[in-house]
Amino acid sequence: MRALNGLKAVYQKEMLAYFYSPIAYFVIAVFLLGTGYFFTYNIFLTGVGTMDQTLQNMGILLLTLIPVLTMRLFSAEYGGRTIELLMTLPLTNWQVVLGKYFGAVSIFLLMTLASCINLIPLYIYGNPQTLNIFSGYLGFVLLGMSCIAIGQFFSSLTENQIVAALITIPVLLAFWFVGHLKGLQSSVVMRELYVNLSFALHFGDFISGLFRSEALVFFLAVIATALTLNISFLKMRR
Amino acid sequence: MIELDRVSKRYGSKTIIHDISFHVKKGEIVGFLGPNGAGKTTTMRMISGFTSTTSGTVKVAGYDMATQNHMASQRLGYLPEHPPLYDVLDVRSYLRFVATAKGISKTQFPTHLEKVVDACKLASVVDKEIYKLSKGYRQRVGLAQALLGDPEVLLLDEPTASLDPGQIHETREVIRLFGSERAVLLSTHILSEVTLLCSRVAIINQGRMLAVDTPDRLQQAAEESNVVWVEAAGDEAAIKQALQAVDGVVSVSSSTLPKAKLLSFDCMVSEDEGIQQRIARAVTSAGELQRLERRKPTLENVFLRYVAQSSKNPE
Questions:
Q1: Which H or E run contains B72?
Q2: Under 8 Å between Cβ of A159 and A75
Q3: Whole-model pTM?
Q4: Domain locations along chain A
Q5: CA distances from B84 to A33, A167, B136, B145 (A)
Q6: Angle A130-155/A93-115 helices, nearest 10 degrees?
């Protein structure tokens, strides 16, 4: 119970900080505008009532928006010297890292939920496959949670928020596009590696309604690794 | 309540803190004195657990900071050099966050809040966003955060910095009040603060602990190399020469007083016995003695003397 209290304290503080500053509103607004545009464009272009292409586009949009959401997580604490408070309160590193992580994930879930408004016209005028949409959204949530964990880790490395975002964006893009390298490789091992590291390919499986446990494990492993690195770095900093 | 045992801190090959040991007991306010860059803040950070020690142990309320960090930090209130405030939050939400993190339940929070808001005189700003507050209020919100939850040990890094004289007075009263039943370590450059508040003083320079004692005893210890101040009329060079010839006078510095063409001499003396009489005789032989006074060393002298000594012989 005590462990949860500490986590709750950090989480509530994060949520307040997001909504007292323009960041959350900005990220949610841009995301919804982008999603709405992609949805309309894809529907009118193809005339097919699916979310497949829209979810793909939302994934790429996410790679540029998540760093804006995560860049402040630790960098702002270093810059504002509040890290000294956070590290000397009776909180464990786990409580701090998870409290912050869940805060950012909550904002992300909120905007994901809001984007579901596109499903209303889809269901009224089309005949979409519910299973595909469900699995696509599940993949999207896993993708977003992985990106947040990575962004949060990079934010813990620097006190400059812009630098944190500028490192996170190329890393996320690399995870997205790494699958394309498989065509350039003759070695089977390397090809497998590239395919298995790719956000785009794992996410693509979810979008096409293919629920593979490897993909689920992959995203969960990325989240666990990034958060563990985050904690190790905080310990090392002392 | 605070115990440091042969604590050192190294960054790479550079040693910032050399083997310092001291303790603060319950009911005691200890002043931590040193010039900028002496290692005060690093030591404070090691006690708070923010920075790890390279060697040695830090105990807070009996708990080892390195191995029982959680137990130790539950008993500690810490105000860092820069008050750690979240600018976008209002004072109440900020203090609520700190309270929740310290394990204060929702139902107890209003009582705790009222106590620190009263003590730190924050009632008028409690619903304001922190970025709108003046420096003095920010400092006091920082103090309120440290006092929240009645910690047994208080660690205050320059608590009165950036306050106006009235606020300094109020803050000192708060520290005195809270310090009576707790262990308080406060760092400062303001020497009068130490004499007013602290029962003991720890002087640090270049990462070494130079002295830990009561302000009175430190003053006594420094008395042997006292200053004798002489006011005289006559020829400046002649009097100076006569003074320098006196047994036990180490150095003489002179200045002309603006009024009545009087000369003023500061004699650093090393010996105590009969020195005033000998100086008086020497001055009378060369000019006209107006006044002779034994200067009591202020804590400032003591401090400067310790610091000068340690800078001269670093090992």
A1: helix B69-74
A2: yes
A3: 0.84
A4: 2-237
A5: 36, 27, 14, 9
A6: 140
How close B71 gets to chain A, by Cα (Å)? 8
Task: Tell the burial category of B193 from Cβ atoms under 10 Å away from its Cβ (0-12, 13-18, 19+).
Answer: buried
Burial of B308 (C-beta count, 10 Å sphere; 0-12/13-18/19+): exposed
Q: Does domain B2-220 have CATH number 3.60.150.10?
A: no
pLDDT digits (tens, 9 = 90+) for A54-99: 999 999 999 999 999 999 999 999 998 999 999 999 999 999 999 9
Q: Does B51 touch chain A (CB under 8 A)?
A: yes
Question: For residue range A120-141, what is the model confidence (pLDDT) as tens digits?
Answer: 888 888 888 888 899 999 999 9
Q: Which of A41, A58, A85 is nearest to A203 (CA)?
A: A58
Minimum-distance CB partner of A90 among B45, B70, B80: B70
Confidence category of residue B315, pLDDT binned at 50, 70, 90: very low
The tokens for B135 are 């420096």
Kindly determine whether residue B49 and residue A238, on different chains, have CB atoms separated by under 8 Å: yes
Domain positions in chain B:
2-220, 227-295
- For residues B36 and B204, the answer to whether their CB atoms sit within 8 Å is no
The reply to whether B227-295 shares the fold of B2-220 is no
> What are φ and ψ of residue A166, in 5° steps?
-70, -25
CB pairs under 8 A between A and B: 77
Domain B227-295: CATH superfamily is: ACT domain (3.30.70.260)
